[in-house]
What we know:
The protein contains 30 helices and 26 strands. By secondary structure, it is an alpha+beta fold. The protein is elongated. The chain starts with 9 loop residues before the first helix and ends with a strand. The mean pLDDT is 85.
Amino acid sequence: MPMDTGFRSLADQLRSWSTERISHLLLARPDLATPSPHDSSQLAARAATRTSLQHALDDLNHLELVVLDAVVLANQTTKAHLSSMVNAEVDASTRALSHLEARCLVWHSLGGLRAVTGVSALLGRSGGGSGLQPFTGDHDDAVRRLAAVSPEARAMLEAVDAGGGQASSARARTDISVAEAAGPAEELIAHGLLIASPSGGEMLTLPGEVGLALRGGVTTRAAADVAPPLPTSERASSLVDRAAAGAAFEVVRNLELLHDAWGSTPPRTLRGGAGLTVRDLRASAERLHVSESVAALLVEVAWASGLLAQSADEEGDPCWMPTDLFDQWLQQPMASRWAHVAGAWLATPRIPGLVGERDVAGKTWNALAPEMAGATVAETRRLTLGLLADLPAGEVLAAGTGPAAVVARLSWERPRRPRTRTESRESLVAWALSEAETLGLGAFGGLATYGRTLLAGEDAVAVLAELLPAPVDHVLLQGDLTAVAPGPLEPTLGRTLAVVATVESHGGATVYRFTKESVRRAMDRGWTAAEIHAFLAVASRTPVPQALTYLVDDTARTFGTVRVGFAAAYLRSDDETALAELLAHPAADSLGLRRLAPTVVVSTVALDSLLPRLRELGLAPVVEAPDGSVHVARPDAKRAKARARRTPAADEAQVTARARAVATKIKAGDEVADSRPRPAEPATTMAILHEAIDAGEPVVLSYVDGRGVGGEARVEPLGVDGGFLEARVGDDLRTFALSRVRSVRPSQP
């Protein structure tokens, strides 16, 4: 189809489009495909609805809005005339116009380029347009009239334009000739440079063609195609990659530690049934040696990626615990695990940065709170990182000025995009930049090579894998009861070592410390002294220090000396001296102990409370089963069922396939519609009305009035909004309820 070919209606133009072009439209404006239109007439009607147009306009950048505004001002125009009206390079304005055509916001009528019906009402001064009124006269004539006024009158007109295009006529005569005009205001009125406002009253309006002449023939004084610059500084790409890869490794390791802890002791949800308590978040931050804000980000990312879910514990209380997907995730390579959680963060509408802040009611936001999300969060995040990806190689955002510059740039990219109901664009951008660096997508204000790959929807695993250190299968035991991991440990070794030792410091080489409590923890989980010795001998490349051997043996010697029974409760020991010391201990008075035999003591304290209190006194009791055997607690890791989750690639493929199917259905519907009369359906009625409004042609309306009497009228449709049709019948303006319209047909010439 030649691009300068005119059509009688928007629906006619859509009928000329290929299936591929229609599918691209449906991908750009997905609301048009739900439910599926039957043919191009229904598609055209749906594309002109207020809600759909609102979404489409919100996705335009400043230049595209300026070009669209120029089309509205000119009413019907050519590409050449449009380019002269827009203060931008011709190639830039041409690309913007092509984008508007592909989004079905501008179409080619018989009289020239036109904006789709409804666009004019949605383009206001705050919407990124010029703020000028639609043209009512000739531009060249406006230029001549403007040249005839005095400098004082022109200065006043400039002020009116800058102030919104309207002024009060309270102190000026409005029905005067040029010769009678006194003062700048009356001079402007006399020359027709200010006219009575359509809304009536004492307001005067600046005509669109006059405003265009005042601005030198263009709709905006500033160049519309010049986006705010991003200040940058030099930084080697290799340095950014290495620093980001280190952060990516740290994120994966912290997620492992978090899920291991929550798998054995799941934190309960807030009393309202959702969210994480401040106490549990703080405890997790201390365990991982990170700030609470980073801990909140990890928790939110774990939930978004399906590794964490809400379930119920043994008592039926709701709690947060790892899902069965977490076990599958653990078996993947480090780079694959990172890509899984980073991709989830890019797509999630959650706002982790809100955690710890207060809402408008003064209530603190908790991690995992269900309402802590926003419709534009994911888009803002992607747009922000997209700006980093577009920076030349070796350049990053300048420190200190980067976030503010990104906000200014995004305001140009999406000037109409509304703020979320929770936070401003400034906050969302700042959080996106900081969270991206915390998660390892970039560093120093730049995006890593594999971060760019992930953002582009491609496989970043291979790129990241080359930057990550190879996992090691050993540690170096030290004489000070520590073990040094010279690199990232293999998952199985790292998780096993975390049972018998405690992480003391993170970094390039993780340091684990062995203590009496950590060895006892391993024994509580069923380890014997022999098993601990064997594990240390295999895991270490250095000899096991004698001090560590003594620590394990000493802990094992006292472990299980006292056995706690299931009666509420008894203590039994073959060592009578141990029981005597316990009975004589000053802090044991509150335990309600009473000796029944040299080797048996009973307590009035319940078993669950007695065990931790005995450990506080320095004992290492074990639980005795009813048959007298030792019951060693071997807590199984608790798991929740993973939520059904699709990958972004799968979602995109599904959306693309559906758009193609709907486009094919529309083309088939056009063939059927061409062979038979249109049915009297609401969608068809709307399509005919919009065609008539776009073409400025009358239609015959069949309707039922308020008394139930049917009739027909030849009307000139002016607009459709809120379920009502505004039309001109002869010299009168009338409003028809669409619910009373039975059919609409084009008026015969």
